[in-house]
Amino acid sequence: MKRNILEYLEQTAARYPEKTAFANESMGMTFSEVYQASRSIGTCLAEKGYGKEPVVIYMKKHPHMIAAFWGVVYSGCFYVPMDEEMPEFRIELIFQNLHPRAVICDGDTQDKVRALEDFDGEILSYDEICGYPCNDLVLDQIRQRSIDTDPVYIVFTSGSTGVPKGVAACHRSVIDYVESLTEVLGVTEDSVLANQTPLYFDACLKELFSSLKCGATTYLVPKQLFMFPVRLVEFLNEHKINTVCWVVSALTMISSMKTFDKVVPKYLHTIAFGSEVFPIRQFNLWRKTLPNARFINLYGPTEATGMSCYYEVDREFEETDVIPIGRPFKNTEILLLDRDDQIPPAGEPGEICIRGTALTLGYYNNPEKTDEVFVQNPLNHSYHELIYRTGDIGKLNERGELVFLSRKDYQIKHMGHRIELGEIEVHVNRIEGIRSACCIYDKETEKIVLFYVGETDQKDLVVALRKKLPRYMIPNHVYVLERMPLTANGKIDRLKLRQINDEKKRRK
């Protein structure tokens, strides 16, 4: 049984040394090159005295950045990925939380690190340390001392207070995740994946570790292509991409712009999606275009190492349906808990809670927030057992499949009625001409605000909704946007929508 994620790299580099592991539009690194560079970086860090501590990797999105990840792990440290496109204020908050002694940079980011007021540690240039003489004895000693609950990485998620929270994942949780994910996706050495998300999100693990474990190849898709769907699909065809694991908004951007009338991703045979509910109208466009492909809905939080549940689409879905999130990965159990911390009756909603080895170590340097959501299993009174409370609401359908309903945060009380904002969005997305939609609730004015992208007239949209929804669920304000604002990892940016709503209120 594996107990260190570097075993994936070592075994794959021995089997496929000259095969491309990670590439962008202009260059690639073979498994042998990744292996050699990472061991050099690991030796350098270890001989400089770094160990069992966070090392920030602050580089542009590039195959070299990925090699640096594994180099930090070789040193016995844990990597913290950051990106030159991250807001400066967020970077400063993360540095204040970590107090790192070392940062690995490239030529584009060194000056930015020097400008940080709270950092007085060592700046290491990737180009200088990737060729450092490897010391096998030092690396072997580090491996002998390591255990599978040692941290691998810290990735920072958005905090409700505006302060980022650093989720620390260990070897055991990552290994369990990778073993389940690659089995579900059917990844092999013939898989060619396209990474969509920034490398400072855990979502990139789907591609990076699929390559490490199976000898697959991962291409880093240029960010600007997600503004031009035809060019994006042409990129997929040019590199013969056959597997993608993308957020829903990236997929709907392609289908809603009638891209398939011009070009089809002809090599794609596995399409995994997650992070948001896939509007059935857009999903069916994908399925009609690629009738022989596998479509897999993935669900899971960063706090459980990324993805915890999956459902492979095995039937037709009507526009009134919701695609299930299915059943848990191996060695993972999903608990639905009601307001009394009991299992609700069959078909009734409850909070999705997760138990198993995929749980992460919690939030770095933040025990209070950790203890709020990593809690004792209320169904177990006999011994210590942690579960993670996701804050998501779900239920089991008549087939016994888990269905995501909404976030607890998106459940509101309006005109005396309890409403799921996600239910309104589902109905909006079924209307002809709608490409994307999102609802927020303005607590100050107690109004439901709908934002959408599409050709449908606002008045026609409201008329259509009145035929489908009760009066108390009809949005009070409806705004059409040219483009839906997205977060860095491609999800709808609800914070930005709140800011847009506030601006519109000030103008009135």
Largest sheet: 9 strands, mixed
Query: How far is the first residue's CA from the last residue's CA?
Result: 63 Å
Placed side by side, the strands forming the largest sheet appear as: 2-1-10-9-11-12-13-14-15
Count of extended strands? 26
Structural class: alpha/beta
Query: Runs with pLDDT <50, length 5+?
Result: none
Helix share of residues?
25-40%
Multimeric state of these chains? single chain
Number of helices: 16
What overall form do the CA principal axes indicate?
globular
* Percent of sequence in beta strands: 25-35%
Radius of gyration: 23 Å
The whole-number mean of residue pLDDT values reads: 92
Short description:
The strands form 6 sheets. Strands 2-1-10-9-11-12-13-14-15 form a 9-stranded mixed sheet. Helices cover 32% and strands 26% of the residues. The protein has 508 residues and is α/β, with parallel strands linked by helices.
How would you describe what is shown here?
- Helix 12 (280-289) links the parallel strand 12 (270-274) and strand 13 (294-299).
- The longest helix is centred in the first third of the chain and has 17 residues, at 31-47.
- 32% of the residues lie in helices and 26% in strands.
- It is of the alpha/beta class and 508 residues long.
- The strands form six sheets. The chain has a nine-stranded mixed β-sheet with strand order 2-1-10-9-11-12-13-14-15. Strands 16, 17, 19, 20 and 21 form a five-stranded antiparallel β-sheet that branches.
- Helix 1 packs across helix 2, helix 2 (31-47) packs across helix 3 (63-74) and helix 11 packs across helix 12 (280-289).
